[in-house]
Amino acid sequence: MAFAIIFETDTRIVKKVQAGVKDASDVALLENESVIIQASPGTIPQHAKVDDQGNIVRYEPQKTDAEIKAENIEKIEKAIQATLDKEARAKGYDSILSACSYAGYTNPFQAEGQAFIQWRGSVWKYCYDQLAEIEAGNRSEPTLDEFLGELPAYVPPQA
After folding, report:
1. Half-sphere exposure of 50 (CA within 13 A, CB side)
2. Which single residue of 8, 39, 52, 142 could bond 24 by disulfide (Cβ 3.0 to 4.6 Å)?
3. Cα–Cα distance for residue pair 24/48, rounded to 1 Å
4. Within 10 Å of residue 6's Cβ, how many Cβ atoms?
5. What tens digit of pLDDT does each residue of 27-51 get?
6. How far apart are the C-alpha atoms of 159 and 156, rounded to whole Å?
7. What is the value of pTM for the model shown?
């Protein structure tokens, strides 16, 4: 008997279900955006994970180098943004954007806003300079924690 695989695109979980299918070329898109991949007995899609009984339990399509690189850059960018926001919140602001908004006009927080703008700029410059160095092969790719540890420190304004 043939089987069909239900591939849930959001969770990437695959469940094997019984079906009367004749070949592996039939693919249908369901209303809930799951994909049914139909296959013959003994046929396991590339990159499928199977349990001890040969049942497909997870399907993880292999990512391209470009997809992996984009995901890594996104993780770095999100972690840096979180670091910037955390420092600003520690000083009583909602976010780095909020802190920087005080820099443009005369107010009691202007100097601090300017310091946050300087810091934010130096952090992002460092980030993209280092990513370019990695891309050029001039340095190895650090772990996320190592990369965050290399970032310039926030320097508060002089009182």
Report:
1. 11
2. 39
3. 14
4. 17
5. 333 333 334 444 445 555 555 666 6
6. 9
7. 0.64
Which of the 8 DSSP states describes residue 62?
A: P
d(CA 4, CA 94): 50
Alpha carbon distance 33, 27 (integer Å): 12
Tell me the C-alpha to C-alpha distance, in Å, between residue 120 and each of 10, 71, 151: 34, 22, 10
Residue type, 89: R
Q: Give 122's DSSP letter.
A: H
Q: Model confidence over 107-156: pLDDT tens digits?
A: 999 999 999 999 999 999 999 999 999 999 999 989 999 999 999 999 99
pLDDT digits (tens, 9 = 90+) for 45-100: 555 666 677 665 665 667 888 888 899 999 999 999 999 999 999 999 999 999 99
d(CA 142, CA 31): 42
Domain extent listing, the chain: 3-59, 65-150
Instruction: Tell me the C-alpha distance between 97 and 114, whole Å.
Output: 11
Q: E-strand spans in 19-126? A: 27-29, 35-39, 48-50, 56-59
Q: How many helices (H) and strands (E) in the chain?
A: 4, 6
